Amino acid sequence: MSKSPYLTFSPRDIATVLLIIGVAFAFRAIIIYERAAAPDNAGNFDPLPIGSDQSYYYWSIFGFRSGEFPPQAFYFQPGMSYFLIGLSYILNTTNLAVLRFAISALGAINCGLLYALVQLAFGNHAISAISSAILAIYPVIAFHDTDFTVVSPATVLLSLALFGALWMYRKPEQWLGALLIGLAIGAGLTMRPEVAVTSSLLMVYLTIIRWRARRSVVPFVLCSLVALAIVAPIAIHNIRGGASHLITPMGGAAIYNGFNRDASGVCIGTRADFTTRFDHFHFLRLDIQLEPARFVELILRKIGLFFSATEPGNNLDYTQSGENVSALLRMNPLDFRILIALTIFGVVAAWRRREPTLPFFLLACVGMFSMTMLLWIESRIRTPIVAAMIPLSAYGLVDIFRHCRQVSFWRRCAAILALLSIGFALSWWAENNLPRKVTLSSLPKGAQPLGAVYNQELHLVGYRIQDQYTHRGRFEPFRPYVVTLYWKLERPTQIDYSFSLKLVVAGEEVESFDHPIGFVNYPPLPTSKWQHGLIYVEHIGMSVRRFDVPTEVSGYLWLDVYPGRNASYLFDPAGSARPLTLARPAIVWGAGQFLTLNADSFEPIRFGDLLLQAWRLPESARGGQVVEVELGWRSTDRQIEESYSIGLYLRNEAGEFVANFDAPLRNGNLLTNSLPPNYRLQDQRSIRLPTAPGSYRVYVAVYSNATGARLPINAEGETLAQIGVIVVE
Question: What is the DSSP letter of 248?
Answer without folding.
Answer: -
